[in-house]
Amino acid sequence: MSVTQSLPRLICFPYAGGSWHAFAPWQAALQGQLEVVAPELPGRGHRIGDAPFSRLPALVDWLLDELDAQLADDFSLWGHSMGALLAYEVARALERRGRRAPRHLFVTGALPPRHPRHAELYHSLGDDELIAKLAAMSGTPPEVLQDRELMQILLPFVRADFAVCETYAWDPREAALRMPITAIGGDRDPDIAIDLLHGWRDCTRAGVRVLSMSGDHFFLREHVAALAEVFTRTLARPLQAATA
Fold it and tell me: Which GO terms describe its biological process (predicted)?
């Protein structure tokens, strides 16, 4: 009798202002190799009616409840930018609570937690100023930014996401993680030099691998296949067969 194993699970967390749709390309690219799970955060998508979180500890608690059934078996975490911070703190919370820990943590487009963020508080800016910052980051289509009615819907959760990042304070007294970390950056990211990614070594006892890909802060959009290969080479395991 042949026994088919369940696929390793990759749980994904979005950048500020992002949603689960950001990971749809990898759900397709990794089909049959990894199970890709991407929760929708409050305040957007089908959760548009829910108040977004503006502080990281409360959002982590919510994610632990929301993902409870997924945080089992063979799973790893991936987050981009703000999502990397979420993934890291979810992993910390799981270890702190004695829960099953992720096999691997992938962080893309993200400074190490101990590194200071930009001095300007984006979540405190006026609407026009915040929209200008979003335009400069090149992560939001211009036609969306120019739609004032749509932006009035989007800005509350975008602002809350920036508050999550900008009010975060890393506690170095907590034990380092027990799983390895892969940190990946864009070689033209204006705010995150590749060399800075080595600082993630402060966050784990299991080692850090640093990779560089061509592109700016949103380089991941140009490297769906390359990132998929990183995930599969790191996480995929051969199917095992048992006979009876």
Answer: lipid biosynthetic process
- In order of their start, the domains of the chain are 9-115+171-235 (3.40.50.1820)
* C-alpha to C-alpha distance for 46 and 21, rounded to whole angstroms: 11
d(CA 137, CA 218): 9
pLDDT in tens, 100-143: 999 999 999 999 999 877 678 889 898 889 999 888 887 788 89
DSSP state string for 61-106:
HHHHHHTTTTSSSSEEEEEETHHHHHHHHHHHHHHHTTPPPPS-EE
- 81 labelled catalytic: yes
Catalytic one of 81, 124, 138, 212: 81
Cα dist. 148→142, 145, 154, 155, 181 in Å?
11, 7, 10, 10, 40
Q: Yes or no: say if 191 and 113 are a contact pair by the CB < 8 Å rule.
A: no
